[in-house]
Design goal:
The complex is a heterodimer of chains A (254) and B (94). Chain A is mainly alpha-helical and 254 residues long. Helix content of chain A is 67%, strand content 0%. Chain A is built from ten helices and no strands. Chain B has two helices and three strands. The chains are: A mainly alpha (254), B alpha+beta (94).
Chain lengths: 254, 94
C-alpha cells in the first residue's frame, strides 16, 4: 500500500470538510424562512450537524497541513478557489423543493461515504465518520421523507421537485466520478472504493426516486470541478456573507 | 403550511425505565412527520430516548363542568393516603 503525502491527505480531507461546511451554511439560510416552525428547526439542526462535522474535519486538516491554520482560519480566511467542496453543495436554496432535492442527493452520498470511512486506514478520520454517520442517517431520513412527500404529493409539489432534480442532476457526476486524488486515497485504504460508493448511492437514490414517483434525469456529461477548486459563481457570493465578519474584525470574539 | 396540518401531542421518555411525559404539541402532516418534528423540536438537548405522538383530536378529556363531581369527593378522604404507617428506618426511597 502506498502512503499518500500529507499534502494529498490535506486536500482530500478538505473536500469532506468543505462539503459539510458549505452545505451547512446554505441550510442555515433557511432559518426564519422555512415553511413551518418545525421545519425551520429541522433544517437548522441538520445545518448545525454539518457545521459540527466541518469543524472536526477542518481542525484535522489544519493539523495535517502543519502551517498553523486552525478550523476558523480554514473556514473564514480562504478564498473561493481554495475551497474543495463538491459543486452541488454550493448551489442556491431556491424553493423548499429544490433544497430538499439537493439535500437528499448529498445525504445519500455522505451516508455511503461516512459508512465506509468508519473503517478507514486513517483512524482519526474513522472516528469523525463514526460520529457523522449517525447524524447523516437522520439527515437522509428527513430529506428522503420530504422528497417522497413532495414527489408523490400534489401536481405542484411534484412539478417543483422534478424541476429541482432536473436543475441539480448535472452536479451528481462529480460526487461519483473519481479523480486521481480520490483514487490515490482509495488505494491507500483511506477513502472508500469509488465503485462501492457509486453503487450505494445509486441504490439509495434509485429507491427514493421510485417511491417519490420521479423520473431519473438523463445523465449530463458536463464535468464540474468544485472539489478541485473550480466553482460555480454561487460560492463567492456565499463566502462574502459567511466570511464578512471575521475578515472585517479579525479575532473578534463574544 | 402548518395551518393545514393537524395537531399532535408529544410524550418523551427521558431515560429507560421512566414513563413517557407530556412535553408539548406540534403540527405535522402525519405520524411519521410528527415523530421527526418531535425529535427536532423537543429532543435537541438530549431530553429523551423515546417519543410517543398522538393526534390531539384522539385525546378524550374530562369535562371541566364536572370537576366538582369528579374530584371534590376525594377531598375529605384522608384515610386514602398511606400516612398511618410507621416506616422502619431501614427503608429508604419510599
Amino acid at each position: 500500500m502506498s502512503s499518500p503525502s500529507a499534502e494529498a491527505r490535506f486536500r482530500y480531507i478538505l473536500r469532506l470538510a468543505d462539503t459539510s461546511l458549505i452545505l451547512g451554511q446554505r441550510l442555515g439560510e433557511w432559518v426564519g424562512h422555512a415553511p413551518a416552525l418545525e421545519e425551520d428547526l429541522g433544517l437548522a439542526n441538520i445545518a448545525l450537524d454539518l457545521i459540527g462535522q466541518a469543524r472536526l474535519l477542518l481542525a484535522y486538516a489544519g493539523e495535517i497541513e502543519g502551517r498553523g491554520r486552525d478550523e476558523d482560519a480554514l473556514a473564514f480566511l480562504r478564498d473561493a478557489p481554495e475551497f474543495r467542496n463538491v459543486s452541488l453543495a454550493e448551489q442556491p436554496n431556491c424553493d423548499f423543493g429544490q433544497t430538499i432535492v439537493r439535500q437528499a442527493l448529498l445525504d445519500a452520498w455522505q451516508l455511503g461515504l461516512y459508512e465506509a470511512l468508519v473503517g478507514s486506514a486513517d483512524a482519526r478520520l474513522g472516528e469523525i465518520a463514526a460520529k457523522a454517520v449517525k447524524e447523516t442517517r437522520y439527515h437522509l431520513r428527513f430529506s428522503a421523507g420530504w422528497l417522497v412527500r413532495l414527489g408523490d404529493g400534489t401536481a405542484e409539489s411534484h412539478a417543483r421537485v422534478a424541476q429541482g432534480l432536473e436543475a441539480l442532476w448535472r452536479f451528481t457526476d462529480e460526487l461519483l466520478a473519481p479523480d486521481a486524488l480520490d483514487e490515490e486515497m482509495a488505494a491507500a485504504g483511506i477513502a472508500p472504493s469509488p465503485d462501492a460508493l457509486r453503487l450505494r448511492w445509486e441504490e439509495r437514490i434509485g429507491a427514493v426516486l421510485e417511491e417519490a414517483k420521479l423520473e431519473r434525469p438523463a445523465a449530463s456529461p458536463y464535468p464540474w470541478h468544485g472539489k478541485r477548486g473550480v466553482h460555480t459563481e454561487h460560492l463567492g457570493h456565499m463566502l462574502g456573507e459567511m466570511q464578512h465578519l471575521p475578515r472585517t474584525f479579525p479575532d473578534a470574539a463574544w | 403550511m402548518s395551518d393545514d396540518w393537524p395537531l399532535f401531542e408529544v410524550f418523551i421518555r427521558a431515560r429507560s425505565g421512566l414513563e413517557h411525559k407530556h412535553v408539548g404539541s406540534l403540527h405535522a402532516a402525519d405520524v411519521r412527520m410528527a415523530i421527526e418534528h418531535a425529535r427536532d423540536v423537543y429532543t435537541r438537548r438530549q431530553e429523551g430516548v423515546s417519543i410517543w405522538v398522538v393526534r390531539s383530536s384522539e385525546i378524550v378529556a374530562s369535562d371541566p363542568e364536572e370537576a366538582e363531581a369528579l374530584f371534590e369527593p376525594a377531598r375529605d378522604k384522608v384515610y386514602r393516603h398511606p400516612t398511618f404507617y410507621t416506616i422502619p428506618d431501614e427503608v429508604k426511597n419510599l
